[in-house]
Amino acid sequence: MSLEKIPVTIVTGFLGAGKTSLVRHLMENPQGRRLAVLVNEFGDVGIDGEILKGCADPTCPADAIVELTNGCLCCTVADEFVPTITALLARPTPPDHILIETSGLALPKPLLKAFDWPDLRTRITVDGVIAVADAEAVADGRFAPDPAAVADQRRADESIDHDTPLGEVFEDQVACADIVILNKTDLVDAPALVKARDTVQAELPRRIPVVEAREGRVDPRVVLGLGAAAETDLEARKTHHEDHEAHDHDDFETVVVTLPEHASADAVVARVEAVARQHGVLRAKGYVAITGKPMRLLVQGVGTRVRAQFDRPWPAETPRLSRLVVIGEKGFDQAAVTAALQSPA
Ligand SMILES: Nc1nc2c(ncn2[C@@H]2O[C@H](COP(=O)(O)OP(=O)(O)OP(=O)(O)O)[C@@H](O)[C@H]2O)c(=O)[nH]1
C-alpha cells in the first residue's frame, strides 16, 4: 500500500450553484487521475448521482460514483461518510483522487473535522475545499443584502448575527473554502459581476482566489492539487456552525412530487417556473416523462430559472416515473406546490 495520502477535494456551494456541473467537468477532464466521486444530496431521491453516472468513463466508471442519500453528509459523518470512504480505499484499485460533492445545504466544517478521524487521517488529506457560488444569485442579494453593509457590520462586531438561513449556509461554505468559483457569469452583466465578487470577498476570512466560470468549466489544474491539507488548518476557517451538533436542517424543507406525463419540455419548464415564482421555491430537480418520447427529461430549477434536457432512456426500475424534488425555506407551501405541479396541463 502506498504511504502517500490520497487527496480529497470537497466541493461545496449553495443549492443549484453549479457543483454537479463542476464535478462533471472534472470527471471529463481527469488529467490522468483515477477519480472517485462521493455525492450527497438533501433528501433521499438522488438526482446528482444519476447525472454524474451519465458521464462515467474508464477513468471514472459508474461504480466509482457513490451516492450518500441517507441524510446530510455533515450530520452523518460517523455512520455514512467514514465507512464509505474506508470502503473506497479498500478497493483493489483505489482511486488516486476523491471528489466529494456535498449537498447544497451541507456545512463543510463538520465534514472537514471528520478527516481527523483516526482511521482516516493517515490515509487521506483534504487537498482543497472548493466553494461554488451562483454569480446571479449572489449579485441579487439572495445571501447577503448589501456587501458594504455586511463588511461594515463585521468590522463593528465580529459576532453580530445579521444572517438569514440562506446567508448562514452560504457564509459557512465560503468561509471554509480554499478557492471560490464564481459560476454562471453568463447570467450577469459587468456591474453585477463586480457586485457578486465584492459580496464573496466580504465573506472571506482570508485571501483566496475567486475564479469566474460558466457551466462549472474550470481548468482542473486550478482546483485540483492545491495541497491545502485543510484538515490541519481548521482554525483559519471560522464558521457559524463549528459542529454538527450545532445545527439541523430545520430552516429548509423538501418535498418529492410525482407528476403527470407532460405534452412537451416547454410545458414542464413553464409550469415549474410559474410554481417557483409563486411559491418561492429554491431548487427543483428531477425527471419528467414527455408524451411520445422514450428519453426522460431532466428538469432543473434554481429559483425561477428552469432548464430541461433529454437525458437517457428511462431505467427499467422506474419506467416513466416523473418526480421532482422541490426544496424551499421552512414553511413553504408544500401542498400548494404539489397541487400546482400535479394539476392537468
Ligand atoms: N446559465 C447557467 N446555468 C448554469 C451554469 N452552471 C450550471 N448551470 C445550471 O444550473 C443548474 C444547477 O446546476 P448544478 O450543477 O446541478 O448545481 P448544483 O450546485 O450541483 O445543485 P444542487 O446539487 O441541487 O445543490 C443546472 O440547470 C445547470 O445546468 C452556468 O454557468 N450558467
From TrEMBL:
CDD domains: CobW-like. GO terms for biological process: cobalamin biosynthetic process. This is GTP-binding protein YjiA. Pfam families: cobW, CobW_C. PANTHER family: COBW DOMAIN-CONTAINING PROTEIN (PTHR13748:SF62), COBW-RELATED (PTHR13748). Residues 252-345 form the CobW C-terminal domain. The lineage of its organism: Bacteria, Pseudomonadati, Pseudomonadota, Alphaproteobacteria, Hyphomicrobiales. It catalyses: GTP + H2O = GDP + phosphate + H(+). Keywords: Chaperone, Hydrolase, Nucleotide-binding. Belongs to the SIMIBI class G3E GTPase family. ZNG1 subfamily. GO terms for molecular function: hydrolase activity; nucleotide binding. One of its GO terms (cellular component) is cytoplasm. Zinc chaperone that directly transfers zinc cofactor to target proteins, thereby activating them. Zinc is transferred from the CXCC motif in the GTPase domain to the zinc binding site in target proteins in a process requiring GTP hydrolysis. The keyword Heme does not apply. NCBIfam families: CobW. It comes from Rhodoplanes serenus. It comes from the Bacteria.
